[in-house]
Each structure stands twice: as C-alpha cells, then as structure tokens.
Write a structure and sequence with these properties.
It is a single chain. With 143 residues, the protein is mostly beta strands. The chain has a single domain, classed as T3SS negative regulator GrlR (Lipocalin, Beta Barrel), CATH 2.40.128.380. The protein contains two helices and eight strands, in the order H-H-E-E-E-E-E-E-E-E. It has an eight-stranded antiparallel barrel with strand order 1-2-3-4-5-6-7-8. The longest helix has 15 residues. The chain is globular.
Length: 143
C-alpha cells in the first residue's frame, strides 16, 4: 500500500511538471508592485538650505523600469534607478545625465504615495543624511 501511494505521488508530480512553465517567466507575469507610480508627474521642489524653488517633471513606466527626471528651471535631468518599492513607497538613486554643473548627481530619492494623483518627493544627497529638498508632485497624465 505504501509503495502504491509513493508511486501515485511521483506520477502526479511528473504529470504536472510540463504545465508549470519556466520558473524565470513568473517575474514577467507577476503584477508590477510600483505600477501606482506610472504616468507623468509635475511639481515645484523646495530646497531647504536656501529656500529656493525649481520645477520637477517625472515620467515613470514601471513595466519598462524607466524613470526619467527633468528639472527644467535648473537645466538638468537624467534617470532614476529603482532600489526598492512596495505599494506605497519607492526608493531610487538619481543619475544626472545632462546639466551636471547645475544639479547634484547620485542622490537618494524617496517617493511616497499620497493618493492616486499625488506623491511626495524627498531628496537626500547621501543615504543617512538629512533631508535636503522635497515636493508634492501631481499626476498630469496617466500611462
């Protein structure tokens, strides 16, 4: 009886395996955890050190893992590299690719979801350092 039970269990596993697919494909099918960030966002940044303000434009596509940042009034922009994310928060490293003379490179950005159309932007020049700049961004277009 025990041998027939083990044989039945083994046969069941062997019958199911062809239908399980490639384990590497599961990540492509799973929903993107930070899809709440998709779209075009805009707002005004506030620099804590001197009280200055500047424009922010953000274009996010989580399915392409593409996060493009523009600071039009500062004449610089680049991309964000996603570090971690969940349903309410995302952390990025900022890489400035244009206008390096006007903007700091390599900052830590933390984005927090407020609601469907608003997110907070917090900028730290180095992890563990004090907050240097912040903003509330408004969704101007969904993707």
């Amino acid at each position: 009886m025990r041998k027939s039970y083990l044989l039945f269990a083994l046969m069941s596993v062997l019958l199911i395996l062809p239908f399980m697919g490639d384990p590497g494909s599961y990540a492509q099918v799973a929903p993107v955890r930070n899809s709440w960030l998709n779209g075009f966002w805009a707002g005004t940044g506030f620099q804590l050190s001197d009280g200055s303000t500047w424009n922010i434009r953000l274009n996010c596509s989580s399915s392409r893992n593409e996060y493009l940042i523009e600071y039009p009034s500062l004449g610089c922009g680049g991309k964000w590299i996603l570090l971690t994310s969940d349903a309410h928060m995302a952390k990025f490293t900022e890489t400035i690719t244009r206008g390096l003379e006007s903007c700091m490179n390599g900052g830590l950005i933390i984005i927090t979801r407020i609601d469907k159309n608003h997110i907070t932007y917090s900028y730290f020049s180095n992890p563990g350092k004090a907050l240097e700049a912040y903003s509330t961004l408004r969704r101007i277009k969904e993707q």
